[in-house]
Every structure is written in C-alpha cells, then in structure tokens.
Amino acid sequence: MEEFLKPLGITKYRLAKEIGVPAQRIGEIVAGRRAITADTDLRLCRFFGLSDGYWLRAQVAYDTEVARRALQAALQKITPWAERLRDGGEPARRGRKPAG
C-alpha cells in the first residue's frame, strides 16, 4: 500500500481520514500486522479508483505466500491424489474391508 501512498504524497493518517477509518488500522495494514477486510478493501478501492476486491486479492496472494513458506516441509510430504493413482498405488482405506 505504501507504493500507492508515496507517489501521491498521502500520509497514512490522511488516507485513514479520507476513507473514514482509524489511522491505527492503516498503520497496522502497512506494517503487515493487520489483514485487509472487505470493508477496508471497498473503501481503498473507491479512494484509489480500483476495482472492488483489488486489495482483498492482494491480501490473499500475500497470505498464501506466507503459508506456503511456513508449510513448505509439510507440503512436500503430501503426495497428490492424481500422482498416486497414476503410479497405481491407491492408498489403503481405513476401517473398511476390501470388497469381494
């Protein structure tokens, strides 16, 4: 968000006042301590002339990347279902007797 503010010469405090939210909210978002909500997205999109959802999509992309990095080891241990079927190794079913 700061990349939008600097060229326009708008402070976080001014942005907060212009869109009707507490200055602390904008400060926390810029610092990465608070996520964008639908409410804040709509206000920011209106102010910056962007399509609704722009900031939410950016938030989801950021959250996904943070999670991907945090879960890297765990994700590597998960074998995709299609890969198992392709290799002919359907996982055993728990609690069920084989048919037949």
Write down the overall geometry.
Answer: elongated
What is the residue-mean pLDDT, rounded to a whole number?
Answer: 90
| Strand runs, count | 0
Would you identify the CATH architecture? Answer: Orthogonal Bundle
- CATH first level: which class? Mainly Alpha
Structural class: mainly alpha
Tell me the name of the CATH homologous superfamily. Answer: lambda repressor-like DNA-binding domains
Please give the largest β-sheet. none
Q: Quote the CATH topology.
A: 434 Repressor (Amino-terminal Domain)
In a few lines, what is going on in this structure?
62% of the residues lie in helices and 0% in strands.
Blueprint of the fold:
Elements: H1 2-8, H2 12-19, H3 23-30, H4 38-48, H5 54-70, H6 72-76, H7 81-86
Give an overview of the whole structure.
The chain is mainly α. The protein has one domain (2-86): lambda repressor-like DNA-binding domains (434 Repressor (Amino-terminal Domain)), CATH 1.10.260.40. 62% of the residues lie in helices and 0% in strands. The longest helix has 17 residues, at 54-70. The model has no long low-confidence stretch (mean pLDDT 90).
